C-alpha cells in the first residue's frame, strides 16, 4: 500500500513539475496571457495584420491593443511580429507583419466588438487585416503538457534518452520544400533583434486526403517527440471557425519553438529534412512570429 501511495505521489509531482515549467515558458518567455480556466462559451480570434508602407509594427499594434483592452471584455492573449507567410491556396498571397490572439467571452461579444467604432478605427489603420476564429477546448489544452510528457516517457522507455543533434543537411539532401523555406530564413533571422527567446508559429490547416493525413501524422509524431524532449511545442489547439471571407480551415495549431536561431537551425538540419517530406496538409497558412506583447 505504501508503494502505491509513493508511486502516486511521484506521478503527481512529475505532472505538476511538467505543468509548471510549461506555464513558466508561456508566461515569461512566450508572453502568452491565456487564462488556464475560462468559460466554455469563450471564443478566440486570430487577427493577421499588414502595415501600410513605412508603418511601425510596435506602434500600430499598440494602438490596436488599446482598442481591444478598452472594450473591457476581451483578453489580449498574445501579440507577435511576423517574419514571413507560408501562403494558403485559399487566401492567396499575403504579407502579414503582425498577428494578435484575443479571447472574447463569446462569439456574440466578438461580433459586437468587431462592429464597434473603436476597433474598426484601430483596424482601419492597417493596409489589410484578416481574422479567423477558434474554439479552444479547455481540457484538451490543459492536457497538452501532460501529453508531451507521456510521449517523452515512451521515448525513454524505448531507449531514446538523448535528443538527436541538429546536424546540417548536405546540399544534395535538401528537399524542394525546404529550399522554399530557406529563402525566408533571412527574414526570420532579422527578428532576432526583436526577440530570440521564442518563436510562435500560427497554423491554420485544412486536412487533405486520407493518405495525406496519414503522412502528416507521421511528420507530427516525429516533431512532437523532439518537442517533448526539449520542453516546447503546441500552446493552443482548437477548431477553426470562419468569421470572414471564403477560406475554410479545420484546425488551428499555435506552436512555440525556443527562439528564432533554434528554428533556423532546425529548418536546415538533417532531422528536419528527413521528416518534412511526410508533411502533406490539404491547405495551410503558417505565420511565424516573435513576442511583442511586453512592448505594448
Task: Briefly summarize what is shown.
With 296 residues, this protein is of the alpha+beta class. Helices cover 43% and strands 22% of the residues. The protein contains ten helices and eight strands.
**Which class of secondary structure composition applies to the elements?**
alpha+beta
Overall domain count:
1
Helix percent band = 40-55%
The string of secondary-structure elements, in order, is HEHEEHHEHHHEHEEHHE
The number of distinct helices, counting runs of at least 4 residues, comes to 10
Q: Quick one: overall form?
A: globular
Strand content: 15-25%
Which regions are unreliable across 5 or more consecutive residues at pLDDT < 50? Answer: none
| Overall number of strands | 8
Task: Write out the strand line-up for the largest beta sheet, numbering strands in chain order.
Answer: 1-3-2-8-5-7-6-4
Largest sheet: 8 strands, antiparallel, barrel
How far from one another are the termini? 54 Å
Mean pLDDT: 90
**Rg result:** 20 Å
Describe this structure in words.
Helices cover 43% and strands 22% of the residues. The protein is α+β, with helices and mostly antiparallel strands and 296 residues long. It has one domain (1-296). The chain has an eight-stranded antiparallel β-barrel, surrounded by four helices. α6 packs across α8. The model has no long low-confidence stretch (mean pLDDT 90).
How do the strands and helices of this protein lay out in sequence?
Blueprint: H1 2-29, E1 43-50, H2 57-70, E2 75-82, E3 98-104, H3 107-114, H4 117-124, E4 128-135, H5 138-142, H6 144-157, H7 176-189, E5 199-206, H8 210-230, E6 233-242, E7 251-257, H9 260-267, H10 270-275, E8 283-291
Antiparallel strand pairs: 1-3, 1-4, 2-3, 2-8, 4-6, 5-7, 5-8, 6-7
